[in-house]
Amino acid sequence: MKKTIFMMLCAGLLVAGAPGCDDDDDDDILGEEVFESDLRVIHAGIGEPQVDVYLNNTLTIEALDYGESSGYEIVPADVYVIEVTPAGNTDPVVALEEHVLEPGGETTLFVMGTEADFRPVVVVGSLDPAAQRAFVRFVHAAPDAPAVDVGTGSGALVFGGVSFGEVTDYIELEPGGYVFVITQTGNPESVTIFEEAEIEAGNVYSFAVLGTLTPGDGYDLMGRVYVDNDGGDAFADLIPEMPQ
Which domain holds residue 47? Predict the structure, then answer.
């Protein structure tokens, strides 16, 4: 509406013979951040130690290691071809055609799967942190693992029936230490218990299960808790106990 009113005023002044209006003035009023977008890539794909990320053929994120987050890159809001390639190679393993990065938006692109079947999983937006609360979502990025339920050491179910490639909505948790317990959906006797994770007030988290169930393939099953607020590049590892 502000833009429309500005244009109408300019048109009226021009008809009256007044000096022309500079549209850049309106950009200054609105602020440059309105025309920017945040993009973060988390590399959870099995078989590529490092990846590069291109936006419209421009290298934007370079040599992102497996399991790591690039942190938020500030880019102009626009429509992009987003390509993820092996580091140093321009042949994409994941491509998103005409993907819109909205003004003021926060986009996380998870690269998941294996070399035979990499897939992009895109999540737009994250919650604003709350001073006395923490928010957590679950990311199933282990390609050969079945659908799972996620509970806590106290027995409470926090996420249910999450399949590979899914990212849940956030839930609110009281700050404190949590032991996350993962079971195959429908088979509560198949259990993986992760070491305690400290969930702090004022943070927003993505708890991801990475790796595979295949012994000796170099990608051991693990948990990683990414911090979604601030720069978006911080994380902590959770080592699982042996399945019971």
Answer: 35-125
